[in-house]
Amino acid sequence: MKNILIPIDGSDGSMRALEKGKEIAQSFDSNVILLHVRPALYVSDYEMNILHQYQLGQYESIANTMILRGQELTNHAQEILDRGLDVFSELDANKVSTVILEGKPAFAIIDYLESKNDEIDLVIMGSQGLTAGKVHQLFIGSVTHKVLNGVKQPILVIK
Length: 159
Known about the structure:
This protein is an alpha/beta fold. It has helices at about 10-30, 45-55, 55-85, 105-115, 140-150, and strands at about 5, 30-40, 95-100, 120-125, 155-159. Helix 4 (about 105-115) runs parallel beside helix 5. The longest helix is centred in the middle third of the chain and has 32 residues, at about 55-85. It holds the Pfam family Usp.
């Protein structure tokens, strides 16, 4: 097992996946890729029509606000990845890398895995992410479910 992908969102489930990933990576001397998907910022067609009705100065203010919000999301994503890197601090730093993607988590993870063809040998992810409520904890999370059904790589789901 040369390369392991661990998508993380900061949830307890993803932290448990990190611990299991560390154990497996140490056993097989694997490379680890920690991946976080941050929400995409977008403006709908309706919102664009409204924005075009404003003067340029107001539009620039809105654009600047969106740029700042994007930076906040990227900083938050980096904080989550840094927590993941802390788990792997005992491993060779060259064996652990991070990736920040933007979009809907399940689709971004699937697209990433498809782009890597056969480079990823194992995906390790938590059974539930941040959106899981008490009732949903009885089932596998929607992101995990979509990834399980959307890729060919083996996936280890951690409860």
